[in-house]
Amino acid sequence: MDEPALEQPQSEAPPAEPAPAQAHDTDGREFLALLIGVAGWAVPGLGHALQKMWGRALAVFLAVGALVILGAGMRGNLFTSRGEDAFATLGYFADLGSGAFYALARLLETAGPDVSHSTGDYGTRFLATAGVLNLLSALHAYEAARGRKA
Amino acid sequence: MHVPLTHLQSMLLFALIISLAFGTLGRRRPLERLKYAIWSFCLFVLVGIAIGWLMYPFSH
Fold it and tell me: Cα A118 vs. chain centroid, distance in angstroms?
């Protein structure tokens, strides 16, 4: 059964523009959300911790940390900025997504990568996934700070 | 540090970690998180095994 259509209010007045103070608040909130997003990228889970989403912060920190530690332990390839081709550059951006944990992976992987075995190849995927997961988490924290979703 | 893992162990560990993160990020309530994580884990494992069998004929 069709529901009756709601009547639209007839108004000749133009839509009201936001007051200057309200616009200022919106800009401030956008900037804060951006800072939270960057913090979430730099330190996995920090973006959510700043918004007191403790469960999510802990989950992201542990998940990204575990992936990085396992990936480095499996002697995965941690890409550098001096990539030889487009795939190496993409891999570098994925690895860099881990923020501070990228440096941790460098410290842990003292023996260097070894992708001659399947374990090393899996390690490369673990490291890249850690970065992409952290980017996803930082984006989630940014959106939550903007009030879009939580 | 050296972490020797087999193919299956790597896949299960990967699926477990990612599923827990997805569940926590994607849902609000604890029960919904758990359900989503279990669902995601099962899909990861099933799809992984299915792709493995699909590739099996090409390995011979």
Answer: 28
